Amino acid sequence: MEYLTTHDLVWINTSITGGVSPYNYVTLEAAMAGQYSYGESDDVPGQAAILLSKLIKTAPFGQGNRRTALIATLSFLKSNGYVSRISDSDSAALVLDVAEGKLTAAEAVARLSEPGESTAPSRLTLRKLITYECNDRREALALLAVGD
């Protein structure tokens, strides 16, 4: 199982927003810990849903929380054998629906991803995978930037 660190989440947010945004370390650490599961840690969609939910609901960053949540969730999923085949507009809509309470994070992750082969180049480091996701989801990031 591959996990994102707190530093990875800060790096994602900085990459997305173009600068260092202030953040609440306690809520950021709690969001990061959402990826982990006690005992057997093999529920990738469930753990991704907790990560997505915590990043959106606790909003640890001064800006870019929804965009960070999308890229972090997609990166966690992809690094653990899941792929997303939905459009940028649909993925942005899922994140907004979670933020507005119209959809649970678990429902969003179920629609966002499925087990499968990645279209990303093989053997990417986590940072390169995150960069790939940011580049691949430019439209979704632009859609989520309004009010984020």
CATH topology: Four Helix Bundle (Hemerythrin (Met), subunit A)
Just name the CATH architecture.
Up-down Bundle
Strand content: under 5%
Integer tally of domains: 1
Which structural class should the secondary elements be placed in?
A: mainly alpha
The succession of helices and strands, N to C, reads HHHHEHHEHH
Largest sheet: 2 strands, antiparallel
CATH C-level name:
Mainly Alpha
Task: List its traits.
Four Helix Bundle (Hemerythrin (Met), subunit A); mainly alpha; 3% strand; 148 residues; two-stranded antiparallel ribbon
Task: Report on the architecture of this protein.
The chain is mainly α. It has a single domain, classed as Up-down Bundle (Four Helix Bundle (Hemerythrin (Met), subunit A)), CATH 1.20.120.1870. The chain has 8 helices and 2 strands, in the order ααααβααβαα. The chain has helices at 6-17, 25-33, 44-58, 65-79, 88-99, 105-112, 126-136, 138-145; strands at residues 82-83, 114-115. Strands 1-2 form a two-stranded antiparallel sheet. Helix 2 runs antiparallel to helix 3. The termini are far apart.
Topology:
Elements: H1 6-17, H2 25-33, H3 44-58, H4 65-79, E1 82-83, H5 88-99, H6 105-112, E2 114-115, H7 126-136, H8 138-145
Antiparallel strand pairs: 1-2
Helix pairs in contact: 1-4, 1-7, 2-3, 3-4, 3-6, 4-7, 5-6, 5-8
Q: What's this, in brief?
A:
It is built from eight helices and two strands; from the N terminus they run H-H-H-H-E-H-H-E-H-H. It is an all-alpha fold and 148 residues long. A two-stranded antiparallel sheet has the order 1-2.
